[in-house]
Amino acid sequence: xxxxxxxxxxxxxxxxxxxxxxxxxxxxxxxxxxxxxxxxxxxxxxxxxxxxxxxxxxxxxxxxxxxxxxxxxxxxxxxxxxxxxxxxxxxxxxxxxxxxxxxxxxxxxxxxxxxxxxxxxxxxxxxxxxxxxxxxxxxxxxxxxxxxxxxxxxxxxxxxxxxxxxxxxxxxxxxxxxxxxxxxxxxxxxxxxxxxxxxxxxxxxxxxxxxxxxxxxxxxxxxxxxxxxxxxxxxxxxxxxxxxxxxxxxxxxxxxxxxxxxxxxxxxxxxxxxxxxxxxxxxxxxxxxxxxxxxxxxxxxxxxxxxxxxxxxxxxxxxxxxxxxxxxxxxxxxxxxxxxxxxxxxxxxxxxxxxxxxxxxxxxxxxxxxxxxxxxxxxxxxxxxxxxxxxxxxxxxxxxxxxxxxxxxxxxxxxxxxxxxxxxxxxxxxxxxxxxxxxxxxxxxxxxxxxxxxxxxxxxxxxxxxxxxxxxxxxxxxxxxxxxxxxxxxxxxxxxxxxxx
Length: 501
Prior knowledge:
Low-confidence stretches: none
Distance between the termini: 28 Å
Structural class: mainly alpha
Shape: globular
Helix content: over 70%
Largest sheet: none
Strand content: under 5%
Order of helices and strands: HHHHHHHHHHHHHHHHHHH
Number of domains: 1
């Protein structure tokens, strides 16, 4: 029974009938699951910010930067390779499982061995034990990578959502209990360990797939070619996104990097929570449409429009009310994070568009072009960060992140659309129509903030949120009409209601 149950991941692919409705339903499930995960994690972070100090967050953040690097090595782009393939076999995926597991074990042991060096680099002895404990969590996660990829390729997003939500709830609970009993930064260390163990257990329970031993059957080499280029891209992308925290931590101290990393995390986390499930949902869909360019383009424009309709208004609102939110929720000692949050806002707008470029590259199997572009983009970004640090401190680093991402947006998308029938003008028309009402609403909310004389931060927060929301709804309806956010939401609901045969 167990073998027969696992066979479903290696059967023939689904047909393309009612693909829009099927994708909408699965996307709704995936996004809903991520929304719950975000709400739980966001609430936990806010409560922990009251219980712990910025220095605690900064201390763990110093190792977290390295953890992200190791995750890229461990995954090696092989889960996306599994999802992108139209046809897979058990020997191929079993080989990928052992590759991922072996890399995870090797990197986990390496991190443990280098823990004293990490502590010496930052000048904090506590980092030795923190790094060694977190390394164990990386090894555990590596055992479930291909199982999770099989579930995403099979579009079992309901089960995946359940795994993520339960694991996140338990993780936050462990963190809160640990902080309550005075464990300090260890609360932040134990959270990812609890998350990894719980999620792996649930994924193994749902898939019940047992990999076979390493074999010479199948075309494993093509998976490695796809994955190695994607790995190279992610590795370079990691340096562009993590060097800021490394530089700030090294030259400005734990408290400053805590303020910066907290602002960056709160701003980018919602984008990451939306981009990740959308990529997982759309990659199998676009991969099935790669031989139908016209249908690919139509689906791409509609999906991009809906993505922007969700992300752009949220980023604008977050920018408009950031100082009031940080002061009311976290306290005046976190006001520095609020201003960094606002400086990083342009980078958040660009980040919300990155998933749309990934759809094209990954679905077409062109990870080599992704890697070549990163070879140009990343050095430019790193140079901007270094200049920003030495001429503007932590604020200069935040500005350099936003500046570099905005400058490279147009050439990046232009490069992405090469050899496709996707139109750069069409995409920027979609972006411009979506951004204009957001920008006007941000300006009017900033003006209202200068006029308001409310001393209570809660009332100010409610007033500014109301001003922004009313302005956005009004101007979005005027400028976009049938393409407004409300219309996009209704279109999505109709897709959900459409019967799937």
